[in-house]
Amino acid sequence: MNRIMYKKHIPVKRFGQNFLKNDIIIKKIIQSMNLNNFDNVIEIGPGLGALTFPICEIIDKITVLEIDENIIFFLLCHKYNKKMNIILTDVMKFDFRYFFSLKKDVFYRLVGNLPYNISICFFLKMILYNLHIYDMHFMFQEEVAYRLLANPGHKKYGKLSVMAQFFYRITPITPVDKFDFFPKPKINSIFLRFVPYNHKYDDYSIEKYFFALELITRTAFQHRRKLLKSNLSNIFSEKLLLKLNIHSFFRAENVSVYQYSLLVKNFLKSYT
Ligand code: SAM
């Protein structure tokens, strides 16, 4: 066998298993979450408990969603097993709508050192459940974190930046070096906090905002070097773009998140 065991477990590459091993970083992450014992925490991919067990020391109950059966068995045998609501599932298929409907008026706190292969898709999937979410704390590979945080005019500013910043206030918590994981991934990571802007959806549902923004940003950034007015010509008139101070020489990367939000509102007003 040429794969190395870590705490009696062989990390599974296809599940993106890079376990956090630096106690200082783990402490920093847990402190940044500012947990109360009654918080409703959901962890995505608890793995060998690097974040889960310190969280269990603070809170009464945590729900953990994990795809790897071996890890489930490990968690069931742990001294904190009574504190954990352990669910064997693929989070990309997990029915969050049903899960959130089980308890009314509860706001969940999500945390996860997300497996790199699903991190963006999972993040986008969760936007639709924002009305049930108090905040989310996720680890992203550095490159993805830069895209999430990028400002207009920056080469990393794109569809993901606009989608993320439209729906969340994002705060970087700490950089995490690749040497802080086992096995060591190829690139560094950044741990981020996301707080949903849930006051926005007075006129239309969050689904409508989501799908309108997805369509507009996908179309706008499809040809980055082209002028925005031609990328969006099938959806918006040049007159409307000018009214929103989106000048005729603008490219998708020159438009602020606020201006995209105005485009979304105009789109919803005209098409729904
Ligand atoms: N939280 C642990 C830590 O920080 O050391 C483990 C993080 S590891 C990067 C990602 C974890 O997510 C692994 O435990 C992996 O098995 C789990 N995982 C991967 N894909 C998943 C999926 N689709 N659904 C649920 N869990 C998944």
UniProtKB/TrEMBL annotation:
Residue intervals passing through the bilayer: 106-129
Biological role: Specifically dimethylates two adjacent adenosines (A1518 and A1519) in the loop of a conserved hairpin near the 3'-end of 16S rRNA in the 30S particle. May play a critical role in biogenesis of 30S subunits.
EC number of this enzyme: 2.1.1.182
Residue ranges occupied by any Ribosomal RNA adenine methylase transferase N-terminal domain in the UniProt entry: 25-198
One Gene Ontology term of the molecular function aspect: RNA binding
PROSITE patterns per record: RRNA_A_DIMETH, SAM_RNA_A_N6_MT
Catalyzed reaction equations: adenosine(1518)/adenosine(1519) in 16S rRNA + 4 S-adenosyl-L-methionine = N(6)-dimethyladenosine(1518)/N(6)-dimethyladenosine(1519) in 16S rRNA + 4 S-adenosyl-L-homocysteine + 4 H(+)
Species: Buchnera aphidicola (Cinara cf. splendens/pseudotsugae 3390)
NCBIfam families: ksgA
Keywords: Cytoplasm, Membrane, Methyltransferase, RNA-binding, rRNA processing, S-adenosyl-L-methionine, Transferase, Transmembrane, Transmembrane helix
One GO CC term on file: cytosol
PANTHER family: DIMETHYLADENOSINE TRANSFERASE, DIMETHYLADENOSINE TRANSFERASE-RELATED
Domain of life: Bacteria
Family: Belongs to the class I-like SAM-binding methyltransferase superfamily. rRNA adenine N(6)-methyltransferase family. RsmA subfamily.
Cell compartment(s), UniProt: Cytoplasm
Keyword field contains Cytoplasm: yes
Protein name: Ribosomal RNA small subunit methyltransferase A
Broad class of where this protein is predominantly found: cytoplasm
Annotated binding of S-adenosyl-L-methionine, by residue: 18, 20, 45, 66, 90, 113
UniProt keyword Hydrolase present: no
InterPro entries linked: KsgA/Erm (IPR001737), rRNA_Ade_diMease-like_C (IPR023165), rRNA_Ade_Mease_Trfase_CS (IPR020596), rRNA_Ade_methylase_Trfase_N (IPR020598), rRNA_adenine_dimethylase (IPR011530), SAM-dependent_MTases_sf (IPR029063)
Lineage: Bacteria, Pseudomonadati, Pseudomonadota, Gammaproteobacteria, Enterobacterales
